[in-house]
Write a structure and sequence with these properties.
Blueprint lengths: L1 H9 L1 H33 L2 H11 L2 H7 L1 H5 L8 H11 L4 E5 L8 E8 L2 E10 L10 E8 L5 E2 L2 E6 L3 E4 L2 E2 L5 E6 L16 E6 L2 E2 L4 E4 L5 E2 L16 H22 L6 H9 L7 H8 L1 H4 L8 E14 L2 E14 L2 E16 L2 E9 L1
Helix pairs in contact: 7-8
């Protein structure tokens, strides 16, 4: 019996020791938890701790994600969202930091400029707010905003012949991008009320983030430079190659005969008139005008006039087999001082007849 009693007492001390150890560890854990909570509350009450935590997450990706409203302003048909994000990320490759605005800050509110390198890209506000923890009021970032609008570039605004195509960043602009239509060519202004004539249109697309790439092609798909568009009069012609060849033939013959007729070449007015009628609409307006001019030609002497140069500026098909030809011709004549060159400008309408193309009317300018 004594032995058994002794064995039972042998376990009392270790048991008490275990209980003490458990109580000690529990108290220690509680104390450490309280200490770390205390330290955590203290740390959060220090503004530089909140600032450091904010700057750790202040990456280029963070700023771009926060700038979604800016990205949404861009027409993604002409600049994709991925392209916009790449432009923003490229602009934010320098280190992003915060610089305190001392004059604007108070004891309970700090205001910072968000800087990318030396460029201000936004602001951040940090305040002492929230419920006190262990008598410490934490500092919290309450607001940040970014302004990358300085990366926005002006819209593309270009005027081209209506038959041309405009591409921005490789994307074809539809008619929805036309801001002005039916812009007249100055050289054809007096004919728009009467005929259906070529015209110009203005396209506008954008704005963009960063630079944009503009490409213009003509009706045949050939690329046209912006320098070439400085003088668009050369794009007035809307005739096919076969039409141009036929018009070159009739225009050349008409002008040579017209020069001979008005200069009284050879002194035979009747022959010169008959030659000229081969290029005019029979009994038409122009034919009658030339016939009426015969009487005045008898007072002109033959001075050996010759066609020295003929320049065709453009041919324009105005519909119903009618073509407008804008040309300049130079005539060499002789007088007592020697050779004289005279330049004249004409607009001639040629029309399809049973005999082929013929001159219908003519205007000097």
């Amino acid at each position: 019996m004594a032995k058994q009693e002794k064995k039972k007492r042998r376990w009392i001390f270790p048991l008490l020791l275990l209980i003490y150890a458990i109580l000690f560890l529990g108290a220690t854990k509680y104390g450490l938890d309280w200490f770390w909570d205390y330290m955590d509350a203290y740390e959060k009450s220090r503004p530089h701790i909140a600032l450091n935590a904010y700057e750790e997450k202040l990456t280029a990706e963070y700023v771009v994600n926060a700038s979604q409203a800016l990205i949404n302003q861009i027409d993604h048909h002409v600049q994709s969202e991925d392209s916009c994000r790449r432009v923003l990320l490229e602009a934010l490759k320098d280190k992003i930091t915060c610089a305190k605005k001392t004059r604007e800050s108070t004891e309970d509110k700090h205001i910072y400029a968000v800087m990318c390198g030396k460029k201000a890209i936004g602001t951040m506000e940090m305040e002492r707010c929230g419920e006190p923890v262990m008598d410490f009021v934490p500092w919290v970032v309450t607001k940040d905003s970014f302004d990358l609008s300085y990366l926005i570039t002006e819209p593309v605004n270009v005027t081209v012949p209506s038959s041309f195509s405009v591409y921005v960043n490789g994307n074809l602009l539809s008619s929805n991008y036309i801001t002005e239509d039916n812009i007249h060519y100055e050289q054809l202004e007096e004919y728009y009320d009467t005929y259906s004539l070529p015209h110009k249109v203005t396209y506008q697309a954008g704005p963009f983030l960063g630079a944009s790439e503009l490409k213009i092609t003509d009706a045949d798909g050939a690329e046209v430079s912006m320098d070439a568009l400085q003088d668009m009069s050369k794009y007035i012609s809307n005739c096919t190659g076969d039409e141009v060849a036929a018009l070159d033939t009739i225009a050349g013959g008409f002008i040579r005969s017209y020069v001979a007729f008005t200069s009284r070449t050879g002194g035979d007015n009747g022959k010169n008139y008959r030659d000229l009628t081969n290029y005019m609409v029979p009994n038409g307006e122009l034919s009658k005008r030339m016939y009426a001019a015969l009487d005045g030609l008898y007072w002109i002497s033959d001075r050996g006039a010759k066609l020295a140069e003929l320049t065709i500026h453009h041919y324009v098909s105005v519909g119903q087999g009618r073509y407008l030809c804008d040309l300049t011709y130079v005539v060499d004549t002789q007088n007592f001082t020697g050779n004289i060159q005279t330049s004249s400008n004409l607009k001639v309408f040629f029309v399809e007849t049973e005999q082929g193309l013929r001159a219908e009317s003519m205007l000097s300018y």
